[in-house]
Write a structure and sequence with these properties.
23% of the residues lie in helices and 22% in strands. It is α/β, with parallel strands linked by helices and 309 residues long.
Length: 309
């Protein structure tokens, strides 16, 4: 009986210890890490030989609400990096009144050349749901009801500033003596991508062809790389959002494998001739209903594109 009592005491202590550890992790994830904004830097060898470097600021997944002044000021401060071009891969909004806040956050950068696509949370308000649903497989099915966020106001704000809307379209941005061609799609997570409208080989006259999508679904990445895009840019994954230290992400919320949930990789993943470089941003925000990050700080990225060896 004494042995059994000892085991009961041990079990209670373990339960209390694990509960305390879980609560401590939650406090850290919701109270600190979700606001610990970081700038990541990568050098990507993707330009033709002899070409000068290009600085690309990649921002994604702000999920902004009007009261998030800390996030707004941090994004405004990115203008000090003096990028050559800004790429916004969507999910800017998390509130019906957030368009002025997003335009305020980007205001110091709107005089810089830029391109953008939208994600699901530019069109639809975030909804309360079971957090465990994030761990289930996703097929990216389109919603059947009409968008209920003022995405058109945000589109107008960006476009009026001169940023290029890449929603299921192609476009070109000239940076001095360099020509960058862009191929973009609407959000694949909602099934709004129409790559057939923009499909076609990369122009030999472009110094670089870039594919831009919110959600990095393989059907889109494969098509873009197959058409000769040398660089692919995406967001959506939140870097896994809740990661295991020393292991990484468990899910990507799309069909991209967790090993490439954020950062720079090659696509196809095995590389080889014809492979594109890819950067997936872990993003700067979360849904208001799951305001936590663990082992995956919010981030923006400065990509320095240099000549390939």
């Amino acid at each position: 009986m004494r042995v059994w009592d000892a085991w009961l005491v041990f079990a209670k202590k373990m339960t209390l210890g694990l509960t305390g550890l879980a609560l401590g992790g939650l406090v850290y994830a919701a109270g600190y890490e979700v606001r610990s904004f970081r700038l990541r830097r990568f050098e990507v060898p993707v330009l033709p030989s002899g070409t000068r470097p290009i600085r690309v600021l990649h921002v994604s997944d702000l999920h902004l609400t009007p009261k998030q002044r800390g996030k707004i000021e941090w994004v405004r401060g990115l203008a000090a990096l003096q990028p050559d071009i800004v790429v916004d891969t969507g999910d800017n909004l998390a509130h019906s009144d957030a368009v002025p806040a997003v335009l305020d956050a980007f205001e110091p950068l709107l005089s810089t050349p830029g391109v953008f696509v939208f994600g699901s949370n530019d069109y639809y308000k975030p909804q309360p749901k079971n957090p465990a649903a994030y761990l289930l497989p996703t097929r990216g099915k389109a919603r059947v009801h009409q968008p209920n966020l003022p995405w058109a106001d945000l589109q107008e704000g960006f476009s009026t500033a001169g940023w290029l809307d890449l929603t299921n379209t192609r476009g070109t941005v000239d940076l001095g003596d360099l020509r960058l061609d862009f191929v973009g799609v609407d959000d694949p997570h909602l099934g709004r991508d129409r790559y057939d409208r923009v499909a076609g080989p990369a122009s030999p006259e472009a110094d670089l062809t870039v594919g831009v999508t919110h959600a990095p679904y393989l059907r889109v990445l494969d098509a873009m790389a197959g058409d000769g895009c040398q660089l692919l840019l995406a967001g959506h994954t939140h870097g896994g959002q809740l990661c295991v230290p020393g292991y990484g992400a468990l899910v990507t919320n799309c069909d991209l494998e967790p090993a490439r949930v954020k950062g720079v990789s090659r696509h196809p993943a095995e590389g080889g001739p014809g492979a594109a470089w890819m950067h997936v941003s872990a993003g700067l925000g979360t849904s208001p209903y799951t305001p936590v990050r663990f082992a995956c700080p919010p981030e923006a990225t400065l990509l320095t594109l240099v000549a390939a060896p």
